[in-house]
Every structure is written in C-alpha cells, then in structure tokens.
Amino acid sequence: MHKKTLQDLEFHTVLQQVAARCTTELGKELALQITPIQQKNTLLDTLGQTSEYVSSLISDNKIPNHHFDHINAELKLLKIENTTLELIGFRRIASICLSISTHKKFFKKFKEYFPNLYNFSESVDLNVEIPSLINQVIDKYGEIKDGASPKLASIRQNINEVRVKINQSFTSALNTYQSSDYLDEIRESVVENRRVLAVKSMYRKKIKGTVMGTSKTGSIIYIEPEATLKYSRICNNLEFDEKEEIQRILNQLTNNIRPYSYLLSDYQNFLTHIDITAAKAKYASELNAILPKISEDRTLFLRDAYHPLLYLNNKLKKEKTYPQTIELHPENRIIVISGPNAGGKSITLKTIGLLQVMFQSGLLIPVHERSTICFFDKILTDIGDNQSIENHLSTYSYRLKNMNTFLRKCNEKTMFLIDEFGTGSDPELGGALAEAFLEVFYERNSYGVITTHYANLKALANELPHATNANMRFNAKTLEPVFQLVLGEAGSSFTFEVAQKNGIPYSLINKAKKKIERGKVRFDATIAKLQKERSKMAQTGSRLQEEETKARSEAQRLEELNSKIKVKLENYQELFDYNQRMIYLGNKVNVVAEKYFQDKKKRVMVSDLIRIVETENSKRKKKTAKEHQAERVKKAKVNEEVEKEVKVIRQKKKVEKKKAVIAEKNKPRPVFKVGDRVRLIDGKAVGSIDTLEKNKAIVNYGLFTTNVSVDQLELVERQK
Predict the structure, then answer these.
(1) pLDDT at residue 707 tops 70
(2) Phi then psi for 488, rounded to 5 degrees?
(3) Under DSSP, is residue 58 helix (H, G, I), strand (E, B) or coil?
(4) What's 62's DSSP letter?
(5) How wide is the angle at C-alpha 608 spanned by C-alphas 603 and 613, nearest 5°?
(6) What was the pLDDT predicted at 475?
C-alpha cells in the first residue's frame, strides 16, 4: 500500500486514536506503525483475535490485565557478556513471565471462546525456570532475600548482632550524659544514618567521641559516642561485604537468565501484540465496529458505513453522523458520484477507502452486520489538491503523473478512488482525457469510485454495462445537502441554485446562463428535475410504507381482538345456557318441594324427583369418564376466565380510584374567603363561609352552622 494512499485517507489519524488506547509505551509505538497486512491468513487471524477481544469486553470472561514495563534495556545487557542486571530489571522480567503464564492458562481454559487468541498464545513456550530463579533470590518487595546464599545470610546475621550492640552502647552513653545536663532538649539525632548525641556546644569537650556535624545555629554539636564508634566501624565493614555478596548473587542470576533472552523477547512481543489487539477492540467498541462477512467473489457491500474519524468527532459534539450504503461487485465495478459541492461526495469516497484500509490492517469497521467485504491487492487514491512547490508541479501536472501510476498498476485486483476526476485543465479537453482513463480502468476490470461534475463522465457511466451513476441527495427547496448516496442516476451540480442561495443577483445568474450552451443547461436542468422527482418518490414511498406497516399491524391487532371476543362470547353463551338450565331444574325441584310441604306425601315427592332426573338424563348423551372430566375442566376454565376478568375490572377500578385520590390530594388547595360557597369533600350540602380563623371555618347552611377544618372543604363558587 503506497504511503500516499494512507496519507490521503488519513489512516495515520486512525492509528493515533488506536495508540491512545494502548496501556504500554511499547504498544503505543508499534500501534503507530500498523500497515495493511499482505498475507491473507495472517490478516484473518488478526481480525479474528480483535473480534474475540471485543466479545470479551462485553462478557463475563474478561481477558487478564496485560500491562507491563518494557525490558528493552535488559535485553540489550543480556546480549553483552559479564554484565549484571539491576534489581528493578529482574522485577520487570518476573512480572512479564507471570503475565505470560496467566494469559496462557486463561486462553487454554477458554479456548472454545477465543480460538484465535489461544492459537496465538501457543506460539510462545511457557518457561517456569526464569521466575523460579528470580523468586529464589528476590522477594515480593523487590529486595534480595537473606537465603539467597549462605554467606549473605551469615553477613546479615552479624550485621543485626552488631546493630544491637550499637543501640545498647548508645543507650548507655545517652543515659550517662543525660543526667549531667550536657545534652540539648532533643537529646539525640541521626546523621549519615547513625545515631548521635545532641550535645550543647559549651560541653563538646566533655563528651568522648567523634564529631559528626553541627546545627545551623552552631548551638548543638552532634557527637557519636566512643563506645558506639567501635561497633559502627565493624558494621560498615559488614555492610561492604553484604554489597559485594549481593553483586555476586545478581551477577550469577544474570548469567543463569542470559540463555533465555530470546524467550524474554518473544514474551514481550506477545504482550505488546495483546496490548495492540486490546486497543483495537476498545476502538471498535467505541465505533460499534464489527467484522463483516468476507467475500471470495469480489463483492463489496458496505451497508450503513460510517467514516470513523467523523463519527467519533460528531459523537463528541453530540451531532448526528449520516451513514452511507454502497455496493461494488463484478456486475457493477465502477461508481461515478456526482452532485453539488459540500454534499458529501468526498467524505463518501474517503469512507470507502479508509474502511477498506482499516479492514486490511486488521481493524474492525463501523458497518451494518449484514455488510460484505473483499480483499484488494492495491488501493490507489487521488484525493485533494496536491501541488508540489519543490518539484514545480501544478495540480493538473501532479494528477497526470498520478494517472500514469494508475495506468501501470490497475488490474482486476485493484481499487481506485479519485476525487474531482478530470479537474485542473480545460473542461472539455480534461474531461475527454478523464473519459479515456476511465475506459482503460473499466477494460482492466478494476473496481473504483470517482466523484465528478463532468457531464461526459456521467454519460459514460450510463453507457458502460458494469458501471453506475450515483448522486448525493440534495433538498431542492432548502438547497441543503441530505448526505445520502443514491445509486442509479447522475446528480445535478445545482450550480445556479446554490449561487442564488448565496446571494448572487438573479440578473447575473441569467447572464451566466446565456453564456453557456443551451443544451447543457437543459441537460443539467433535466438531471435536477429527475433528482427532485426521485426525492419526492422516495419520500412518498417511505411514507406509504410506514402507513402500510401501521395498517397491517392495526388489522392484525383487530383480528386478534375479534378472535378473542368471539371466544369470550362463546364461553359466555355456554355459561348462560348452563345457568338457565340450572334455574329451570331448580324451579321444577322447588315445585316438588312446595307440593311436599303442603301434603307431606314422600312417595309422590320421590316419584316426581325420579321423573325429573330421568327426563334430564334422557336429554344427556352417554359420555365416558374422560369426556365428563374434559367437560368439567372446560367449565372450570370458563369460570376461571370470568373470575379473572372480574378481578381485572375490579383492579382497574381500584387503580383509577387511587389515581383520583392522589390527584385530589395533589390538587392545589384553594384560598378561601368569607362569603365563598363551599361544601364538605364527601358531602352534598352547600353553605357559605361566615368566618375564617386559624384554618377553621364556620359554614352557614341556613338552618344551622358548623365549625370545620378548611382542609375538609372544597370550593363551589367564589363570592361575587
């Protein structure tokens, strides 16, 4: 990929944003050096790793922390014989080894969720000897252990014994001189890591020992007692022996680790790669980026594609970003975009190119999940004004030089992106040359997108079977861009309309129209008219589609409601018929009971009851136990549904009543005045207020008066 292409598409800005999301300095440096990956298998692995890391950010299986301090200086020293690493270097090495062990265990445990990252983790061998060697010598606080060697343990034991003797001798001298009033109020201090007596200057000759310093005013002399001095010399010698032994131990540890320097370099590269992958994943999450379907048949379908830099910038400003949808395939290899300036042509062009470069560099792209993308061996761009003062090249000279490069490199595996194709020279001659270039690119089966204002290029795109015109929609009424790409027809430049909107006098615009060919004006006007009609049709179509969707949903809702009502009516009818039959039987039984009550004839009553039962049984069909059970269940269900509906109705009434009470409570209380006509909140009688005092009111109802709280009253009518 040519550097000029990456520069035109502002790919470096994307890399800066990715680098800002790295947690290590080494990751930030290498993120800025990302370039498109040539090997297809490597690219697929990288994309898969990034996609897996994105999934870990939103799942419970979060990948362990990978932060580390780089060991470049330590790796350089390990390559040089007889060098010794510092303590902090060993700590960094141990930390990296621990991170590698943690990551390998994690990816092995969840290899079904992260197959690509697991395969990558298997590319480095786990070495347990390096951390074991370091842990034998250095503790968790980064200090040399006493047991690092027998000699060091012995030296440190002697040092501790001598320090005890130093403290004992110093305490003895302190007590001795304290009683003789030779010492200052502070009694003691520390100079050069030694305990010293704070002696008044006038008694300096009274104290036996070595002077270690004085106070700023000179009133205090710091003296190490003679008894302590002997042990301090012994301690100094032991501390020197300790330093030499530590240096020997570190030198030996360095020599033990030196053979594994290549492995430590692999460990660092692994963690750096994980850091960059994590940064790509965070960047993808902010962009809502995904890995689209990868096509093998050279199909590029970017649905709802966003320009990443514009999207993040607008997201920060809380402004809307307009997505674009574009499709390139063997039957539609070249798209010619036309339309007015500031309509979004260049941004659309850059969006396609930048997303393709990002994809081929292992970055996920902000598109719809049903998008499709393919690989290109080369991406050629000609975007912006590229005058070169150093080489004395004008814009057009540079463009011709660039076109020469395009002619040499364009083939069926190339994508070209050209902004304002053919500009920089005489419109007719430059347009004719641009037309010839486009025909060559077409014959070589190259894929490409160009933007232009030239009518001959629009006409050529209309004539070529595998090329398509497209335009950026423009609101002809407000003369504002809509930032939406429409495939299938060329776009008008709206030259005179935009000029009129910007305050150019109408007479001057008419004068300009007369200076150009009448046919060109008519052609441009026809295109503008078609665009307006297309825009109206699109709006009408979307509106009709919305109305159709609403009508369908409403019809479906009514149909469901109708079926529910039918079922309910059937259930109610069955219940009604059953209840009527029960009433009829009850009346018959009641007549028999009344007769028995009058004449007390049991036989007659029993025979009448048997006759009623036989008559009813003759109407019934013989049913099995299962049918009886089914009938009982059905009746129970009907009763249950009725009860449920009654409960629902009662619940609704309760809620409405509760809402009414709350509304009444929240209703602002009126300020009553003497003479206002009022009534009690729960009452009907209306009276007038005679007196008001301390939230109490005397209400006159004509025949009687009553003393009530103002809160219990509601206003009926104000005093006129």
Answers:
(1) yes
(2) 115, -20
(3) coil
(4) P
(5) 125
(6) 63
Cα three-residue angle 555-560-564, rounded to 5 degrees = 145
Dump pLDDT digits (tens) for 537-564: 777 887 888 888 888 888 888 888 888 8
Q: Of 1-10, 217-226, 499-508, 632-641, which gets the smallest average pLDDT?
A: 499-508
**DSSP letters for 400-417:** HHHHHHHHHH-STTEEEE
279, 18 in Cβ contact below 8 A? Answer: yes
Query: Residue 474 in 3-state DSSP?
Result: strand
Q: How far apart are CA 613 and CA 86, in angstroms?
A: 109
Amino acid 33 reads Q
User: How many distinct helices (H) and strands (E) make up the chain?
Assistant: 21, 19
Compute, in degrees rounded to 10, the torsion defined by CA atoms 429, 430, 433, 438. -140
Tokens of 312: 């993040």
The H or E element spanning position 672 is: none
Picking from 106, 101, 98, 57, the residue whose alpha carbon sits closest to that of residue 278 is 57
* CA atoms of 51 and 20, how far apart (whole Å): 19
pLDDT at 342: 60
Dihedral angle over CA of 518, 521, 523, 524, nearest 10: 170
Strand partners, 224: 210
pLDDT range class, residue 621, cuts 50, 70, 90 = low
Beta-sheet pairing, 414-418 with 378-382:
parallel
**84/547 Cα distance (integer angstroms):** 80
CA distance 375 to 373: 7
Nearest to 692 by CA among 700, 702, 681, 683: 700
10 Å CB burial of residue 327 (0-12, 13-18, 19+) is middle
Above 50 in pLDDT, residue 389? no
Nearest to 322 by CA among 484, 451, 479, 487: 484
Average pLDDT of span 312-336: 89
Task: Name the residue among 323, 310, 354 with its Cα closest to residue 449.
Answer: 354
Residues 245-259: b if buried by 16+ CB within 10 A, e if exposed: bbeebbeebbeebee
What is the Cα gyration radius of the chain? 47
Whether 653 and 647 have beta carbons less than 8 Å apart is answered as: no
pLDDT given at position 343:
61
Write the pLDDT tens digit of every residue in 495-541: 655 566 666 776 776 777 666 655 455 555 566 666 666 667 777 88
- C-alpha distances (whole Å) from 277 to each of 19, 111, 272, 307, 594 are 11, 17, 9, 21, 95
DSSP per position, 41-54: HHHHHHHHHHHHHH
Q: Would you state the structure tokens that stand for residue 289, as one six-digit string?
A: 């980026």
Q: How far is CA 52 from CA 104, 105, 268, in A?
A: 15, 17, 21
Number of residues in the chain: 720
Residue 570: C-alpha distances to residues 554, 565, 566, 637 (Å): 24, 9, 6, 13
How many CB atoms are closer than 10 A to CB 352? Answer: 24
Indicate yes or no: pTM above 0.85.
no
Laid out side by side, the sheet with 713-717 consists of 705-709, 696-700, 687-693, 677-680, 713-717
